[in-house]
Amino acid sequence: MSEPQYLTGRILLAMPGMGDPNFEHAVIPIFVHGEEGAFGVGIGHLREGITFHDVLREMDIEPGVAPDCPIHHGGPVETGRGFVIHSTDWSDDSTMLVEPLGALSSSAAILRAIADGEGPERWIMSLGYAGWDDGQLDEEMHRHGWYAAEGRPAILFDAEAEGRWAATWAAEGVDPSLLVAQTGNA
């Protein structure tokens, strides 16, 4: 019997003072959380020096009608691997549907569809991902590392990348300026 996937479909927010500069103000939608670990794709920071058209050209795909938008830093694992978080109006064999977030695809087919104007209505692209072994994320959450916010598509698609951390806290009813970097033990 598998354990509950209680974080799947939620958005992880890095707590202040978590101690890992790779995740400072991280915003990570979680697409898998179970017995074998957890997997999410960061959307809280942009990658400098690379745009969507650069990725398309690298894959020998003509940009066509695709906007030349920024690429997000998905996480410290496989930083050259691309993921598209998108609305559920497009899918292929690589697509993972995760409510309420939407969908995640990692094939070249979605890039071609976007370039051809036949892709999902709403999407963002990240390079890299965040991954945790079995139990690792649970342990980090107990040590004041992460907060699991509701999975709100508006946060994914409407908030600006560098403002998503604060926007997600605000949507949870929390003023992030009041958060403390340390907690005590009883």
UniProtKB/TrEMBL annotation:
Matching InterPro entries: AlgH-like (IPR003774)
Organism (species): Croceicoccus pelagius
Pfam hit, one: DUF179
Sequence similarity: Belongs to the UPF0301 (AlgH) family.
Gene Ontology cellular component list: cytosol
Protein name per Swiss-Prot or TrEMBL: UPF0301 protein GCM10010989_23600
Source species, domain of life: Bacteria
